[in-house]
Design a protein that fits this description.
single chain, alpha+beta, 64% helix
Length: 311
């Protein structure tokens, strides 16, 4: 099955400067938003108290927030999740309060809204644990990119394709982080998992394009590099679009019907799939071209030693 009814011949390499410019603008905007607004980090990263409760009727988020503030909690984050009667709240850490004191204040606040509320056991995360989780998340992403660079360099015999793949992979999580800085959707461990999933998903498309580039060079090693890259991307374009569309259908359904608990995870996947599709088509191969990729880099010449027939 093909997405297009006839073979495409889009000049991707000829327009790469336009897409470079767009990517640079989006990345600068994302970095600016990150430093200007920051991320709405969840309790896992900042430390504090996570509260989940079930009300006897539909939960009034605004009343719950006001009740928590009346008990002295500064700017609590309250949202519904799952059913309309379920709420989750995130409370900033307070070193002056013991665990029992925090629990008593939370229960008092929630029962002032609904005496029949069921408060689940509170989850406390210390600031040190939050720092360790944040550092682990950064380390996991860094190690992933390093291993990807080495894998592509070995598989395709050139660092040029590795550099193109890594820059394209960096492009995707930066845009996701920019979106989360803009939307202020809570950034939790599920979003970190989505970031790593996006890296793997985008890498899969990039590897498929690189495999087709190798096939084009193997068929004709004198083929001009821009033409070989354009042919490779066009030949994989239908597959790329169809797999992304079918995946997006599932992820968008998750975003719409998954509730607040899965909102950050699904948002990261939607942005990542769109950004990954764009980067695998317009960025990774184009960067390799500008780094001087040629057929002999993918198929290095092996010099055979001459052996005399006489001893």
């Amino acid at each position: 099955m093909e997405f297009f009814h006839k073979a495409t011949n889009f000049p991707f390499m000829a327009t790469r400067r336009v897409w470079y410019t767009l990517s640079v603008v989006l990345m600068i905007a994302s970095v600016t938003l990150f430093f200007a607004r920051g991320l709405n980090l969840s309790v896992e990263f900042t430390g504090g108290t996570a509260v989940e409760a079930t009300f006897s009727g539909t939960a009034d988020v605004e009343r719950v927030r006001q009740a928590l503030e009346a008990q002295g909690f500064h700017e609590p984050t309250v949202q519904t999740f799952g059913k309309a009667s379920d709420i989750s709240a995130r409370l900033a850490p307070d070193a002056k309060q013991t665990v029992d004191q925090v629990r008593t204040r939370v229960e008092s606040a929630l029962r002032s809204v609904d005496v029949n509320v069921t408060v689940k056991p509170l989850v406390f995360v210390g600031p040190q644990v939050g720092d360790e989780l944040r550092n682990s998340a950064i380390k996991a992403l860094g190690i992933t990119l390093l291993l990807v660079f080495g894998y592509i360099a070995v598989r395709f015999h050139t660092w040029r394709l590795s550099a193109g793949a890594i820059l394209a992979l960096l492009h995707d999580p930066i845009l996701i982080i920019g979106w989360f800085a803009l939307s202020q959707t809570p950034f939790d461990l599920a979003v970190v998992a989505a970031l790593l999933a996006v890296v793997g998903y985008s890498l899969n498309d990039t590897i498929i394009v690189f495999d087709r580039i190798r096939e084009r060079f193997e068929a004709n090693r004198r083929l001009a590099t821009p033409l070989a890259l354009d042919q490779s991307i066009n030949q994989t374009l239908s597959r790329t679009i169809m797999t992304k569309v079918t995946t997006l259908i599932v992820v968008v359904a998750l975003l719409v019907f998954g509730g607040a608990t899965l909102r950050g995870f699904s948002e990261a996947l939607v942005i990542g799939i769109l950004a990954g599709t764009y980067s695998s088509i317009y960025i990774s191969a184009a960067i390799a071209l500008d780094l001087g990729l040629k057929a002999e880099h993918v198929f290095p010449t092996v010099r055979s030693k001459e052996v005399d027939s006489l001893p």
